[in-house]
Amino acid sequence: MQIIKYGYGKNGRMEFLYDKFPQSKVLLSPIKGYLFVKSVRWNRDDPVVTSEDLEEMEWLANDVMETLEFYESRKNARKQIR
């Protein structure tokens, strides 16, 4: 999956379009130095979005915004709790 385009929305949120879901707008919100998926404005013409897709979207967005270090430290902390 790749990012087609992204931009800034309201209240600090960011809007992303991904090549796997070109008709669905993905809204990501900043929290503690990284971005996470807030919602997906899913279009019926696109495939169903899975939890693995959401995680990949977050990873790609954080990579582009250079916040991947914060995102990965969060993911590692969650794995240690489990």
What are the low-pLDDT stretches, counting only 5+ consecutive residues below 50?
none
* Rg over alpha carbons: 13 Å
H and E order = EEEEHH
Helix count, per DSSP? 2
Q: Describe the global form.
A: globular
Q: Major sheet: order of its strands?
A: 1-2-3-4
Question: Overall mean pLDDT score?
Answer: 87
Largest sheet: 4 strands, antiparallel
Class based on secondary structure composition and strand pairing: alpha+beta
Percent of residues in helices: 25-40%
- Strand proportion: 35-45%
Instruction: Compute the separation of the termini in Å.
Output: 28 Å
Would you report the number of β strands? 4
Describe the overall structure.
The chain is of the alpha+beta class and 82 residues long. 34% of the residues lie in helices and 37% in strands. It has helices spanning 51-64, 68-81; strands at 3-8, 14-18, 21-31, 34-41. A four-stranded antiparallel β-sheet has the order 1-2-3-4. Strand 2 (14-18) and strand 3 form a beta hairpin. Helix 1 (51-64) runs antiparallel to helix 2 (68-81). The mean pLDDT is 87.
Summed up:
The chain is of the alpha+beta class and 82 residues long. The protein has helices at 51-64, 68-81, and strands at 3-8, 14-18, 21-31, 34-41.
